[in-house]
Design brief:
The protein is mainly β. It has one domain: Clam (outer membrane lipoprotein receptor (LolB), chain A), CATH 2.50.20. It is globular.
Length: 272
């Protein structure tokens, strides 16, 4: 699979939700390396997390993914080729796509697209594809301090990227999992897409309502929480995934191609 680094900013900032999400500096220094599974070359705990969500081998057999996100007055529709990460997003008034080299936007109406296409083309399916999306090459793992919420202490796995991997190799992530079931429950992440410099400010989302989709456990709901000085605060936003399906066949590459009349913004325009 293509090497990645996931440049993802919280949806509250992108879509203008009701409140700004608080972030925090790194909860504690991450120094301890994880024990590696000799059969998979992944950390043992990460292999168990993959298994709890249907298994990495099940994930790898699929070549295409489709899902929708519920918006207030329409369904946002996503098509993704999982092998080369090309994508197509059908918004209400715009279509955004990535053909493997170029991000493009086609306006269905006269109004111009107000988002940043190079940032948005992979945003939502990376959220949705956790934890499998961190099984790519060029990724480093280490143990992270636990996250406490209620009466549960969630162990953490820190994820960093080799230099030059993906769009934002300086990004860092921490997956927090249930110590009994190994199901992923929380994701903390930094964002460096816009600044291209290392950040220690983490945002936090909670995964809810896992649903089986073609043998994989996929989230139906993701929720953003206030995250201040390592403490989990109130929920401030949520997003609903639905109508998901996977295919063992690649999607038609024509749907990702740049259509006539589409805008093709330069990547440099998105990071300033």
């Amino acid at each position: 699979m293509k090497k990645i680094a996931i440049g993802i900013l919280m949806v509250t900032l992108v879509w203008g939700c009701k409140q700004d999400t608080k972030t925090t500096e790194e909860p504690a220094e991450i120094t301890e390396e994880v024990v590696t599974d000799s059969e998979t070359n992944y950390p043992e705990t990460l292999s168990k997390i993959f298994d709890a969500h249907g298994g990495l081998e099940t994930w790898k057999k699929y070549k295409g993914m489709y899902f929708e996100i519920e918006r207030s007055d329409y369904q946002e529709k996503y098509d993704v080729d999982l092998q080369n990460r090309t994508s197509r997003i059908q918004y209400k008034d715009h279509i955004l796509g990535y053909d493997g080299n170029q991000v493009w936007v086609k306006n269905v109406i006269d109004e111009e697209f107000k988002g940043r296409p190079w940032f948005l083309y992979n945003l939502m399916y990376y959220f949705y594809a956790m934890p499998f999306i961190i099984g790519d090459e060029g990724i480093n793992y280490a143990e992270a301090p636990n996250l406490k919420y209620g009466d549960i202490e969630y162990p953490g796995i820190s994820i960093t990227f080799d230099e030059g991997v993906g769009e934002s190799s300086e990004d860092e992530y921490i997956i927090f999992y249930n110590p009994d079931t190994y199901q992923m429950e929380w994701l903390a992440y930094t964002v460096t897409f816009f600044t291209k410099s290392e950040s220690k400010q983490y945002s936090l989302i909670k995964y809810h309502d896992w649903t089986e989709v073609n043998g994989l456990q996929m989230p139906s709901v993701v929720q953003w929480h206030i995250f201040d000085k390592g403490e989990v605060g109130d929920q401030i936003n949520e997003m609903f995934y639905m109508n998901a399906k996977f295919s063992e066949e690649n999607p038609d590459p024509k749907i990702f191609a740049v259509p006539e009349g589409a805008d093709t913004p330069a990547k440099e325009e998105q990071t300033n």
